Each structure stands twice: as structure tokens, then as C-alpha cells.
Amino acid sequence: MSPKHLPNTPRPYQKSQYDPLALGSMIRYARGLEPCDLVIKGSQWLDVFQGKWQKGDLAIAAGTIVGVGESYVGKQVVDGSGFWVVPGFIDSHVHIESSLMTPRRFSETVLPRGTTTVIWDPHEIANVWGVQGIQWALDQSEPGPEILLSIFIMAPSCVPSTSQSLGLETSGADLRAQDLRGFRDHPRVLGLAEMMNYPGLLGGDPDVLTKLEDFAALPRDGHCPGLSGKDLNAYGVAGIHTCHESTTLGEAQEKLSKGIHVLLREGSCAKNASTLLPLLSDYSSAVLGFCSDDRNPLDIETEGHIDRIINLALMGGHGPAAVFRAASYGAARMYQLLDRGALAPGYRADLVCVAPKITTKGEPDWTSGIQIQKVLKGGQWIQPKSSAAPLVPVPKPPSAQTNLNIHTQFRGESLKDFLRIPTSDQDAPGSPVQVRVIGVIPQQIVTKSLTKTLVVTSLHTIEADLSQDILKIMVIERHHKTKSRGIGLVHGFGLKRGAIATSINHDSHNALLVGSSDHLMLMAWERLLDMDGGIVVVHESGEVAHLPLPYGGLMTDEPPGQVSEALRRLKSLAQRAGCVLEEPFLQLSFLALPVIGNLKITDQGLVDVTNMKVVPLRVNEGPGKVP
Amino acid sequence: MSPKHLPNTPRPYQKSQYDPLALGSMIRYARGLEPCDLVIKGSQWLDVFQGKWQKGDLAIAAGTIVGVGESYVGKQVVDGSGFWVVPGFIDSHVHIESSLMTPRRFSETVLPRGTTTVIWDPHEIANVWGVQGIQWALDQSEPGPEILLSIFIMAPSCVPSTSQSLGLETSGADLRAQDLRGFRDHPRVLGLAEMMNYPGLLGGDPDVLTKLEDFAALPRDGHCPGLSGKDLNAYGVAGIHTCHESTTLGEAQEKLSKGIHVLLREGSCAKNASTLLPLLSDYSSAVLGFCSDDRNPLDIETEGHIDRIINLALMGGHGPAAVFRAASYGAARMYQLLDRGALAPGYRADLVCVAPKITTKGEPDWTSGIQIQKVLKGGQWIQPKSSAAPLVPVPKPPSAQTNLNIHTQFRGESLKDFLRIPTSDQDAPGSPVQVRVIGVIPQQIVTKSLTKTLVVTSLHTIEADLSQDILKIMVIERHHKTKSRGIGLVHGFGLKRGAIATSINHDSHNALLVGSSDHLMLMAWERLLDMDGGIVVVHESGEVAHLPLPYGGLMTDEPPGQVSEALRRLKSLAQRAGCVLEEPFLQLSFLALPVIGNLKITDQGLVDVTNMKVVPLRVNEGPGKVP
Predict the structure, then answer these.
(1) Considering CB atoms only, which of A3, A32, A284 is closest to B230?
(2) Staple B156 to which of A187, A612, B123, B576, CB 3.0 to 4.6 Å?
(3) What is the spatial distance between Cα A556 and Cα A565, in angstroms, rounded to a whole number?
């Protein structure tokens, strides 16, 4: 590695980094010569070095744990005798955008669940706003009174998700190595985000290699669903240190054995934790992490965030020492955050008081899971917030235009023409046609590539067939006012009397429409245009639910409670329109992500992910035929 | 931490740091598209992430592991079917000087024992040569054809071992914060070496705090025998991350629970591994390390180096997954060496083929310990070397003077006068005198502070009393030609007819003499002066054994076999002179280290370590009296 490629700013996340004047006073606090800010007296606290519960005081001063185990005097004293204290949880890989909230609202939401640090890959907003989106993510996650959560950033490696040269999708930005280099020295940028373009890496794509080399002194995240054997070795040799995309235990075991740390994911759509938890042991808990990846605010509110995975693990019989270590220390070490992940002198005062069920014998029963009692972040107790408190508005990047930057041809009734799927003149009305249909798999990002038979209509078109649950789906380019759009067919939504429109569409975030009829799709589309991005559901009754997402068509700054409520209404209306999916919106958005198989749709059309090429809707259709 | 305190050179010990041109070819090796340099076929290799033995090939190219588990083609193919392969061992804390050898000779010695990386605190040579000694250590440990071992350096924090202002000893150098800062950016300097001055730290000594702040972005080693409670919390809060000085299990457990990584030590003198091994578990193996600290070449030759601790652990019933992880991955992670400590793609090809005893059922019996079969370092097999091979001489620093820079009064017969311990005129010959005597404890660095009764001679002196095993011991300043010397009495050597002289004297490395008579001490002294430093034993028969140590009076560049042989002769002659200690020379040298209790001797006289002050030889002696 030549020095020119190395960043010049050391990451200041070593334990015990104080203001030069403060070190002497920290020593005095620790020695008990000055009263500390806060003392939690006589709690049981987890020693993540030995995997033992220790008993005694936890003393905190200047946001730092200054003493453990001994008896201290504090300005604030809390009786910890009923407390089981563990280090604050770390979400080792998250796209905050998938919470539909700005970073400050996300902070408000996850802190009470015990999450005190997250590692954010802002590649959703980077796909919309480009380099300015990454800068916006850094600016809007700066720690301060409104953002107590520690938010670190990984520089998005794959914007768009597939190499621009493949022409598989149109993103708002195309970020090359030189675009990312400038972010490398930011002290909150920890490394390079998920390298989804593993075919590019394996093939030696020069831009991919340059990105890996530029970030060679820092952690570089992976994303390699199903990769194995020698290709997985090659992925590891290139410096990739994590993957959060394992869906089977065998896949995760192979990755871990090859030095690729496994992040156990429980998103809203991709729920892999239960499958992968057998990987967790006392031994491996030092090198595993938990992550949410893409998780909506409803699930965070009802099931939890990282605490959800913790509960799944505990209820699955895993010991608390292993579970809480993976949730904190394991993730911290992976990302070189040496100032957190343990309850010990010199570590940040990020901690969670958890309450297991206590048996009649007075022993904790961890297999019943935990409740979060109290959360301390940087020495401050997290208070349930009056979410509606007035806030200074979050700014947008200066040059951010309207979110739906749509070609005039897609405004008004003219969309109807685009929704039409014509057949060839040679196809007689009533004759069968073999078509490719995207098969949605509930709670998976991966899809099936189905072949279905539809019948040519009297107008020489192909139409949705509700009896087979085959609906039209359309992606419309929304960044550059091009006319590009892709139309396809999808199975698995179950919509009978409604349509969904959204400006969220992984990762290029074009506009996306699905519905039981052209008419309802058009209605949803117009509503989406009116509010300049967000999520819309229309019902044939005329009822409409919506959630405007003014920040890049992805995020809102409304209070978390209101966002959850809007999402609840959207889900409810989608269900009343016949939708059978538990998480219709994230699931819909991932139908456009052409790096996870098998059949996807982008503004360029249907994408055969295995072969990385655009394919026609009709099976056996030769090139040049429509569509 | 203000940025000005942070070093500017990132440590390039991330996994997978290649020359920018090499990344593409590493990927091709890993994919099996090019034949690798070396393939170890079908071995069992340890996966230190899951704690499992995996089976399959290990493929190596360009000094790096490029593939594991799959089948590869190599230019060199080794049948690994009988091999159990583990990552190369790491000595997490060593003073190479204590091997009595230059770094290149030390490299030759420990590599065949499986040690592939060491973390060197060169504070012995720094006490002699000052800043130039640290530079010499860096220069002489530069990787190259003669030095395959990876040698990293911690900047010595305590030269001399006690703060100069206490006046407890005279060292060759007094290194302050500003002297160390220049070394911080060297890519092989990993951090700050053992902070022995924990009283200074606890008391807020400004120079100690500045050193800690200067190195705040890097690991800072500890050394705190017996420290506990709030003071141990304060030591941790100041950023100290390791300690290798625990002598009881309880002490080690408290340190680890407070986030201070425990290094299990097995030196030649301080042998703590067996006592501390109960600390090792599957869980803790990720956060523990093994170290030798001070180990002589004879012990390395006969018992081993880090492999000695591994064998003690295995024979104590610890599982190989935990033992080998602590010996490699645990230590590597502690010191931010992310490119080693595991057998996985992108890691350095540092590995050891070990042979456990195989039971009649064909299973390995780890409890019988291991033999080292083969060692691979950076992709090269370690060959047993013809040690006598001619070498270009190792240079000394330009301004390095004679090693025994001794005041003329100490040359010739005049030393005799200094060995005289006069009593006061009021002491009648034959009357008893209460004296302080250093009580040597075999295999411990700590001593007892004994009170013994001697009888005033007719010449109004106190003399050695062989019947009580009380000998004279003397330290003579050898750096600045001052006249300072300390004389004392020691119990525990057992010498009846001989004397030992040495220029090794932790850590100030003045000259040190002990013997059964003034006459023999003088003989040993003259021999030590003649050879300008080293170790000498004289026997009353006139027989002499010696080992010249031309590099600072501490090290030689002679072949390891010759050094061991010389040491064997020295030990044998000391034993024939009555010495009862198993390791007389290291044990003797540590009698001068005033940071480890209880009674020690320096050129300033007897030191009461608990109270950090010079005390008179006679008990209840008022100030101003002699000696």
C-alpha cells in the first residue's frame, strides 16, 4: 500500500481520548477524590471480557465510565440494585433512510430501545443526491443536543448498485472512486460501505479496485448473498471484512471461517436472525455483530431494533454473555470503535439497564427475553421525548431540486399510454402468451423468476390478471427527466382493488407503481406527484393514505409517532385493497434492486440478475420486439 | 483529544494492504486463475473465528493467504494431510535485550519455535543509549533477509523506571514526552510501552500525562503489579490497555474485568502462566495474550518461547481453539495488527504446523502438548539456520561510547575501599547490628525486605556472612562516570566460593556485583571492565566464565548456539560456586529495579519500593550516618 492512498486522519475512537486538560481530572474522579456526575449503585453489570456478571457501582463523569466495581460518591446517585447493566447496543449496518426518518428523528426512535451507536451506509440518499447526499448525511448526523445517538458513516461504494456501464438502471448519481476519496478523512467516516458489486470486484473492475485501495487502511463492508468457494476467498483477499447478506447458516459459517465477519440481520423485510443465530457462541461472540439494514419505524416501535435480535437470541437459549457481547463489543471491534462496547474505565458511558424476568427463586430467566428499563448515552439518561417539540427545519442540500424530477410526458393522463403493454399484431386476441413474472417471496429480498401464461386482449394488449395475482408494475426514472421507464408483471402482492405508488425504490430510487388496474395506478401516481415523493395507497373506494417524504423522496422530519401512524394507515389500506404482504412497501421497493436475484425491474426494464442483463417481458422474445 | 496530539501516520496493519498494482492479481490467485506460490494440501487448520478445525487447502501467494478450504494449484505443493495448522504466535510484550541477543539473532532463535511477531519494548537499550537506543532498535529490527520475524516497537515510557526527580537511580538517559513524540509516527511503532510509573500516573505527574496524551490514538501498555480497586480504575481511565505483571489469578481477573487486557507471562525469572491460565476460556481467548517479557536464550532453546505457554495451557487441559486464539488473534487485535492472527484470505501467511500426540484411535491428544513441525513466515518456510554464517557486523549508534563508562576511582584495587561497609565508632567489635537485607524469592521479580542481625568486625566493618547466606551486593554507575554506587546485602543466592558481575541491571543497567568475598567480587569486576560489559562468573579456584555483551553491555551478535553455550557455562560455574538460584543472572539483574517491591538496590543505595525512597542499610539508622 503506497502511503498516498492512506487517509491522514486517525480515527479518534480509542478508549480514553480526553481533552488534554481533562486527563488529570479523570484520574481524580476514578480515584474517588472528586464526586462523580452519576453513580449507579450496586448493580449487576456485564463484564464482556470474561463473560461474567460483576456486582458493584458504576461511576460516570464527563460522559465516561470512570470506575467500576468499587464504591463511589456521585452528584446523582441511582439505586441499581435491581439493574442488569450491559453496554449500549450497536447497529453495525443500517440505512437510516429505510426508517423513513431524518437522522435526528431516527436517533429519537432507536435510543430508547438501547441502541447507542449505528453505522450508517447512506447509499439511499447518495443515489438521489449524489456526493451532496453523503455530505448531507454527515452534516445531519453531527452529534448535538438533538442527536445523542452516535452515528458513523461508511462511504457508499456502489452508487448505483450496478456499474453504470452495464446500463441496468438509472440512478440520481454515479459515484466513482474520486468522488469518495474526499470523505475518507472525515473522523466519522469509518470506511467503505457494502461492496455490492462483487461481480465487478471478482472481474477486476478498475474503479472497484481503486475504491478498495483508497480505503485500504479502513474497514470495508461486504454484501455477497450466496457467494462461496474460491470467489468468496477472492472477496476476502480484496479486504472485505463483513457481510450481512447470509440467508442460510451454512453460508454464514463459510463466510466467518474465511474471516468475513457475519452481521446477523433482522430488517423489516429481510429477517435472517433466527436462521443465523446458531452461529453465535461464547467463542464467536467476539467477532459477530447485529444489524437492522432496512427496518421501518413501525417494526422498531412494535418489535424493537437491535433489542429485537437480542430477544430472539435469548429466547432461543443463547447465554446473555454471548448475546450482549455480539450486540456491543463484537460490533465495536469490527469497526475499530475502541472507545465503546464495554463497561470499563475509560469507555464511553453508553449503557442499557435491562430487566429479565425473575424466577420465583429470584434468578433471572433470560430465555423469556428482556425489557429495556433505562438507557444512558454519553452519561445522559434518555428521556421519553415529547416528539412534537418544535424543531428548526432540517435543511436540504442547496442544489436539491424537486424530488420527482419527472419528464412532462409522465404528467397527467399520458401515463396511461405507458402502462399499456402491447402485443405483436400476429398475436390473435385470446391466444396465450408466455411472460416473465417477478415472484415476490414474503420477507425476502430475493425474488423468483416465474413464467406465466396470459391471454392477448381484444385491444392487442397484455393486462393484469387478478385471478392469477399477476399485476402490472412500473418503474419511472425520476432524477434526470429522461423518459426511461420499465414495465413488468409481478406475482405475490394480492392487490385486488387498489394501487401503491412510491418514490422509494432500492437503490436508484426511481418512482415505482403497482396496482390492480391502470386507473388506480394512475390515481396513485398523481397523488405521488402532488406531494413530490413519499408513499401512497389508493383504494377503489376513493380512500387514500399517504406519507410525504420531502427529503429526497425518502425521508421525513415529522415526529416518529406520526410516521408510524401514517405507515399503519398505509398498511391497513393496502390490506383492505387485498394486499397479502406483511411489509408491502419495503418489499415493493426491493423489487427494483438488481444486485439481489433473481428477476427484478428497473427503469431500464426487467433485469435477469444472474446474467446481469435486461430481458424482455415475453419469454423467447427475440431482440428488438416490444416490450 | 486535540488533533495536534494525534499521530499522522495510520498504522498500515489492516488486512489486505497491497501494492496498488497487486490487488487485481491477488484476486486472480484467490479465484484459482493463476497458480499460487505455495499450497498446503488437505491440512486441518484452525478457524479462530468459530473455534473449529477446518479441513482443506491453504493457498499462499505474495506472502499472503489467498485461499482457504478450496482446492488450489501451486508452484510448490506440500502434503498437509498430517498437519494441524494454526496462526503464527505473537509475543505481546518482550524486551529482546533480555535474550542477550541482537534483534537479528533473536529472530533466528524464536522463529523456529513458531513465534512470527513480537512487540518489543526496547527500554533496556533506551536506558543505556537513550533516544539513539530506540532508533537503533528500530533500525536493527527492520524486516529484511536477516530479520524475517515481524518486530514492532512500543516507545519506552519510563526511562529511567522511576521519575528522575525522585533520585532513586541513575540511568543512561532520562526520556521525557518530547523525546518520544518523534517516534510516534514510525509505522512500526505501535504505541506507548509499559507505564511502570503508575504512582506518577495516579499522582498526575505532568510528564506522565503528556506521554499518555501524546499516544492517545494508540495502544498504551501497562505495568501495575498488585494495583487494584479505585487506583486500578484510574489506571484504566487514563487509557492503559494491558498489564503483564499479574502474579495471582484474582489480580488478573480484576484487571481483565476493568478492561485491562491481561498478558500471561512466562519469562525466565517471572513465571506466571500456570497461575494465570485459569483466566483463559473460549470467551476470554479473544482478549488475552501471551508474552515472555524477559526470557534468556537457554530457556528459549530448552523449553521454548510462546510455545512454552501454549504447552502449559494445553497440558493444563485448555482446548486448542482457546489456546491458539490467545496466542495469535487475541494479541494481534489488542495491538491493532489486523493483518495477522488468523488463517483467512488476505491475512499474512504466518503459520505454524503443530503436531499433537495422536491417540491409538487416531485422535489428537492435545493434553500432551505439541511439537512444532514447520513454520511459515510471510510465505517463507523457516529453515534451521547455520548460525555461524558470516554476517555484516551490526553497527552501534555513532556516539555510543564504551559500555562501562566508569569513574577512574572504580578502576583497579581502589574498588576494595568501596566494598567496605564501615560501622560507627560507637559499635564495639562483636556487637550485633540490625541490617536491611534484600530477600531473593526464586522465580519472582518481587523481593522480601528482610531484617537480619550481623556482628561488627574487629575492623569496625560489616561483612558478608556465608553461614546466613548474606552476601554483599553493589551497584556502580556506568553511564556518566559519576562516583555513585550503592552497597547492600542480599539473601538467597547461596554463593560460597565465587562472585558474579554484570552490566545488566534492570532498568538503569549500571554495573552489578555480588559475591562470597570482596576479593572474588573484585576479580569479577576487573574481568567485566576488561571485556567492557557482559556477564562474568569467577570461582575461587580461579576458573572464570564470561559472556561479553558489546551492544550497550546488554546484547551480543554471536550465534544463538554460542550464546546459550556461554550461558550454560556461566550457570554451571555459578552453581559450582554454590549458587542455588535456577536463573541467577536475570534474578540478580532485577534486584536493581525499583518499581517492583519490596527492597531493591540501585547506584543510589537501598530502595524501599513501597515508600519510593532510599533507606539506610542499618535499621533505625538516622539520616546522615554511613552507609
Answers:
(1) A32
(2) B123
(3) 13
